[in-house]
Design goal:
The protein has 152 residues and is mainly alpha-helical. It has one domain. The chain is built from seven helices and two strands, in the order H-H-H-E-H-H-H-E-H. Helix 3 packs antiparallel against helix 7 and helix 4 runs antiparallel to helix 6. The structure holds calcium ion (3 copies). The site of one calcium ion (CA) has 7 residues, from loops.
Length: 152
């Protein structure tokens, strides 16, 4: 019995979800298998009660965790001030594209609201039955299918 993605709209929501989570950025193209594995790990660890379903609360907890890891100086904004002194370039090459992509008011600072808007939209789009949960297996199957069929 398969309960995979049921519609193109759902697949579009899934892609928004995944790209929103930052998995499709940069390195995903260079090493798709590694990216898929990291994604699987993240999704599984986000499922804190291990019931195989990701609730919106579990999902947003993961987003908050990711945001606070970038916001190293804890001022609720992610920007170049958060770069570690000795690893400024690495930090900005990883975080810079996320800021550029999601800084919706273009002030150069990424707030949590800006960071989370798209992934949360994607989550809701992937939640086709409107129960507030998304099956992790369905997400992973879709991811594997994506990497098996290659690009495009
Ligand atoms: Ca769960
Ligand atoms: Ca900050
Ligand atoms: Ca901003």
């Amino acid at each position: 019995m398969k309960s995979l993605l049921k519609s193109a709209a759902n697949a579009a929501g899934l892609m928004a979800l995944l790209s929103g989570m930052g998995f499709m950025a940069n390195r995903a193209y260079a090493e798709p298998a590694g990216a898929a594995n990291r994604m699987a790990e993240s999704l599984q660890s986000a499922d804190t009660n291990k019931d195989g379903l990701l609730t919106e609360a579990e999902f947003t907890a993961m987003l908050q965790d990711r945001f606070s890891r970038m916001d190293r100086n804890r001022d609720q904004q992610v920007n170049s001030k958060d770069a570690p002194r000795l690893a400024q370039q690495q930090f900005m090459s990883r975080v810079g594209p996320v800021i550029a992509e999601r800084d919706s008011n273009k002030d150069g600072n990424l707030t949590y609201a800006e960071f989370s808007a798209r992934p949360i939209q994607g989550f809701r789009a992937a939640d086709t039955d409107g129960r507030g949960t998304v099956e992790i297996n369905a997400l992973l199957a879709a991811i594997n299918e994506k990497s098996a069929t290659g690009s495009n």
